[in-house]
Amino acid sequence: MDADIALLLARSVLGITMIVHGLNHWLGGGRIEGTGRWFSGLGLRHGRLQAWMSVVTEIGAGVLLVAGLLTPLACAAVISVMLVAGLLAHRSNGFFVFKDGYEYVLVLAVIALALAMLGPGGLSIDGAAGIGVTGWAGGGIALGVAVVATTGLLATFWRPKLK
Q: Residue 148: its pLDDT value, please?
């Protein structure tokens, strides 16, 4: 039961973080228009579409994580979003988050991968339904889907400005 509670805590914190992040992209600061301009500034075509895709992915993954439903796929969504953020927005700034580096997105992605491998625990819809995929299979699904999704998004939409 201790492990189930620990997994619930980890899933909930990561899930709520993703939900709030998605809501901020949608409703915070510059709202969806500002988020779209920011994505365009990173070299992504169709910035407004990218903003909406990010919002739906972040909120959707967050809700699935909190519920413990389709956990490897929810983790794949988190990993993919963090890969895109890390590669396009943070990589060139180095490691540390206080310098807008990739430290934070790396931690979120690795926690998502660890959750995919450990599974959601018994206090989850996956656990109650007996459909949890754990271990190398859960991690492989999460990482594989994330890499394919990230590669597809970047190949389709990323057109960096040449210096």
A: 98
State residue 161's pLDDT score.
76
Helix or strand (DSSP H, E) at 21? helix 2-27
Q: pTM for this structure? A: 0.95
Per the CB < 8 A criterion, the answer to whether 77 and 144 are in contact is: no
Q: What is the DSSP string of 85-152?
A: HIIIIIGGG-S-GGGT-SHHHHHHHHHHHHHHHH---SSSHHHHHT----HHHHHHHHHHHHHHHHHH
Which residues, listed in sequence order, are joined to residue 158 by a DSSP beta bridge?
Answer: 44
Cα–Cα distance between 138 and 115 in angstroms, integer? Answer: 9
